[in-house]
């Protein structure tokens, strides 16, 4: 019994350290050797962009002098801009980048570096931030059936500037019976035929199409209703 308890404790310790390492993802050769930064994230336009940079210690591997958060600077990958006016010392080992009212143009890879008096630099870690919007409403939604051989729907989407997915389903007879978009499809196109899975159901008159947009900042639902037989184009 004691042996089993000891094994449980060992596994718990191993899990804890594995969790700490995986939760501190890091871009670049810094690789958690000197410290870590805020995990990558998406941000709403108009919010404050915040990246924390935390040193593991004042004495770091392969560095012969003691350091603290006053040695830390932030740079963005796209233009190498140094954000000294937006950088704040939180405590002895933590520095914070805070850009108020962030816009889409503030998206990028932010590097935290240790800078010494001789201007030599050591990368601590980096954080990717994408600034954007929740999913936008779709526009110009159209569906046509060519002689009941296929049912094809297309629509347009406005960029949210972050990774966003749109899925289309069609409700048949009631909201309880729905048909998803078969493969292949994309964010702006869907087609059903008698050979797709699910197949094209030709004899249902009233169709309700539902498009759901989803990203890390929110979700949206657009509903479109069609008289099926009114959108058939005969050969």
From TrEMBL:
Under the heading InterPro entries, the entry gives: FN3_sf (IPR036116), Ig-like_dom (IPR007110), Ig-like_dom_sf (IPR036179), Ig-like_fold (IPR013783)
The yes or no answer to whether the keyword rRNA-binding is present is no
Species of the source: Argiope bruennichi (Wasp spider)
Q: Which UniProt keywords apply?
A: Signal
**Stretch forming the signal peptide:** 1-22
SUPFAM superfamilies linked to this entry: Fibronectin type III, Immunoglobulin
Q: Which domain of life is it from?
A: Eukaryota
Q: Which residues form the Ig-like domain?
A: 29-114
Keyword Transport on entry: no
Name by which UniProt lists this protein? Ig-like domain-containing protein
């Amino acid at each position: 019994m004691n042996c089993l308890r000891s094994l449980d404790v060992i596994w718990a310790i191993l899990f804890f350290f594995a969790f700490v390492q995986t939760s501190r993802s890091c871009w670049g050769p810094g690789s958690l050797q000197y410290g870590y930064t805020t995990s990558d994230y998406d941000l709403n336009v108009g919010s404050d962009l915040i990246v924390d940079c935390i040193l593991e210690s004042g004495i770091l591997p392969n560095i012969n002098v003691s350091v603290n958060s006053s040695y830390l600077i932030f740079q963005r990958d796209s233009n190498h801009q140094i954000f000294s006016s937006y950088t704040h010392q939180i405590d002895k080992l933590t520095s914070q980048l805070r850009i108020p009212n962030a816009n889409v143009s503030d998206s990028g890879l932010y590097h935290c570096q240790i800078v010494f008096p001789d201007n030599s630099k050591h990368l601590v870690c980096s954080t990717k931030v994408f600034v954007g919007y929740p999913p936008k409403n779709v526009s110009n939604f159209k569906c046509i059936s060519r002689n009941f051989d296929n049912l094809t729907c297309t629509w347009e989407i406005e960029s949210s500037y972050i990774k966003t997915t749109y899925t289309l389903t069609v409700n048949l007879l009631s909201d309880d019976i729905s048909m998803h978009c078969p493969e292949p499809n994309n964010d702006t196109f869907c087609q059903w035929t008698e050979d797709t899975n699910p197949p094209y159901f030709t004899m249902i008159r009233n169709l309700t199409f539902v498009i759901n947009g989803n990203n890390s900042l929110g979700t949206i639902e657009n509903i479109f209703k069609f008289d099926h037989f009114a959108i058939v184009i005969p050969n």
